[in-house]
Fold this protein.
Amino acid sequence: MRTIDKRGKVSRRGFLKRSSATVFGTVAFTTGAGILLDPKGAWAITLKSLKPETMATLIQMARDTYPHDRLTDATYAKAVAGYDDQAAADPKIKNLIETGCASLNTHAQAMYKTNYVTVGWEEQRVTILRNIDTTPFFQTIRAGLVTSLYNQHDIWQKFGYEGSSADKGGYIHRGFNDIDWLNTAQSAQAGTSTATPGAKS
Amino acid sequence: MTAPFDVNDDHVVVIIGSGAGGGTLGNELAQKGIDVVILEAGARYEIPDFINDEWAAFQQLAWTDTRTTSGSWRIAKDFPNLPSWIVKAVGGTSIHWAGASLRIQEHEFKAQTNYGNVAGATLLDWPVTRAELDPYYDKAEFKMGVTGTNGIPRLPGNNNYQVLAAGAKNLGYQTYHTGNMAINSQPRDGRGSCQQIGFCFEGCKSGAKWSTLYTEIPAGEATGHLEVRPNSQVIRIESDNTGKVTGVIYADKNGVMHRQKARIVAVAGNSLESPRLLLNSESSKYPDGLANSSGQVGRNYMRHTTGSVYAMFENPVHMYRGTTMAGIVRDEARLDTKRGFVGGYELETISLGLPFMAAFLNPGGWGREFTTALDNYDHLAGLWIVGEDMPRADNRITLNHAVKDKFGMPVVNVHFDDHENDEAMRSHAYTQAIALYESVGAVRTFPTPPYPSTHNLGTNRMSANPRDGVVNKFGQTHDIKNLFVSDGSQFTTGAAENPTLTIVTLAIRQADYIASQMKTNTI
């Protein structure tokens, strides 16, 4: 059976561009602009609207909402970077996100005496998220993430998904029927196909 | 070669919509020498334009104009502005369909007789029988090249099918195979054979799957009697005081309105848009909308009792490789009212790519229960439940006058409450499907809620008695002789089968009827 190397080929040093918000490899950066830098130096985001600590909270929230241990923070950063654009374009969105992230910190301070991103265990942060999961803030971020995270083509291989196939000739010679672990007794090709109700054979 | 007709040419048949119903009707009439103008709301793409990328293809092809929802169905919560998943493009939803081509069973044409009077449902017998339709089913299967008919071999089974078949065998099911599919298993009709690409929902890149886009429509255009006008959204159908329709008003892509005159109008815009159009075509003579003296336009909306079950295995499956609907178990589609519900259901393999799996596995779901399912995406197998749902008077399409589209036309509101029969059937199907996969060694199973509806049916239903429905057995409206309905909204009841084959069958038969009526100047 042809299987997929799920280690993938995503560089840890993400060099990612998304409209005005850019996630890039470690570079020198200017003062004045809002910049969020990965503590490990793998990436940074320039921000035009949201506060850097807000973006850091969003990135942690994205990972806690859709935790995949084989995805780097750069992937989550890319998934939420678009909210900076939206916030720049729409004060209501900016307010929704800034107040939403602030409320995460309020919950975190009340429960764990620290801000959301520094709460130690995922389970503790998820408890906070469960407290707010019916709010427009959480619903908006989660709904957006479903596409902005999983529609990143460069992570598909890590899930064993091969993406487009017509350009590779389909799967007719690439394993569409190569399953090899069904018991022989189980891998019946068909039942009484001539007895199909409702169709002439 | 296209045949451009003048907007003032009042001898043409105007068909609204170019999918399985409208596209087929247009070609069938054109082959008889009848001049046809098809007005299609969407753009025209061709096979090279199709994209093997779920969201990109969705943005390209799907009808994403706003709709609204109400009722207790989960779609109203999960996808409040996307009640259906259908195509807005030349070829309509025949671009998106998976290809399953099953005849409605004899007993299903007589749902009221066989199921009895189910409380809270508006069951009726169809005014047409299976025996009357069989010669037309023959023609449709031949036209579409359905596997398992006309000596056409069935497709080979992919990995997803092999898991399904193994489980079906374990459960003692008798009738399971790779389906009756309008997908070439060998070259036929100028189209090649299936390359097991997957992405059947995103438009078939090899053309092996039948779609009106590259079969019926070019065949009709080649006669010189068919013109297809894309980017032409009909806003209303015009009628006169003699009880006839006279033409349609449509908006082109720039929003400029045109009046196309017509001898006959056939509505084939799918079960949401077709009643929308009839309701939006009210006049002083028809204050409740066209063909609506019964008050039935938009009612009895059906969408099949659906759901999916995905199952995770210790070892990989790669369900996405090959045809999306790669096989079927038919045993539960039998007539058997002793299971706690009436009607039956089919189990058909389905697969989604990672992006759509994330969106549809458990809409609104998050956290590790959700993400560990996706971590093992390549170890999943999946099937789709397609069951007969109950027609209900208040499951209906109405005009939402508070929300207008870009042309100022009220959008549709889709109201749906699951009938308790639907819920009992879905529960039974989940139980059976989970047992099927567990018999093959599934380590986790996921009973997945319905997707936005692809099978939209019944909102202009056929009835023997004009009080009970909108159209007669030929799809001709009871009220207006030169107004027809040519899509799945004609369905009296939903049956358990994927509807496209029956839509095509009815369109072929309707073309014969329209031609005969034109010849005798009845219409």
Summary: The longest strand of chain A covers residues 21-24. Residues 11-32, 193-201 of chain A have pLDDT under 50 and may be disordered.
